[in-house]
Structure formats: structure tokens, C-alpha cells
Write the C-alpha cells for this entry.
Amino acid sequence: FNLVNGRNVVALLAEPEEIEPLMRAVDHPGVGLLLDTGHLNVTAKTLGFSRELFLETALPFIRALHVHDNDAAVDSHEPVQPGSWVLDVLRRNELEHAVIIVEAKFNSVSGLRDHVAWLRDQLA
């Protein structure tokens, strides 16, 4: 997760090698990870690691996702767009039972409703 203090961001459990040792140590079926796709995108670019490597390491432990996208420089909480890498993540078989929470910004409730319907169509 990320802790923001002014301009500084401290990312905990942000790098692939941090995930598995912790989850194996906890070793409880009721404990899992909440993956924030926007945070992953920015953190991977900032810290210089592969999103794909992170996902391969984290997939067995992910139970829920905060879903949004950005330009990898700033976490702007943009809606997922056609062709986004986020759609590829959501389509992973390992995540078929994960809870998906849309965390993007919209100008209206109807905009959110339309986006959720579009995501459902994309994942059907």
C-alpha cells in the first residue's frame, strides 16, 4: 500500500519480492491482497519494475481489485479505456472470483453506471 506524506510516497508491499514472503508467513485463507491497478502502474514506473512480474507474484494472493488507470506518472484515477492493460489483468483466470471495485472518477452517477456496464461487457 502507499502512504503519502506531502511530496513523499512510501510504498509498502509494492515490489514483487515483498509479496510472497509476507503472504506465506501469514498463511491464512481469510487474508489476501487488494490490488490497486492505478497504484501498481505508477509504482512500477517509479520504482522501475515490471507490472507483469508483480502480477505473476501477487496473483495467487489477490482477492479484490481497485480498478482504474493512469499515465503511469500520476495516479489520476481515470476510467479504464478500450485496449488498456487493466482489461488484460481483469481477464486473468486466477482473478475470476476476485471482487472488482471501480475506483475511477466520473462526472455523474450515470457515467459510473455506464462504465460498470461496459466493464461487464468486456469481461463477459
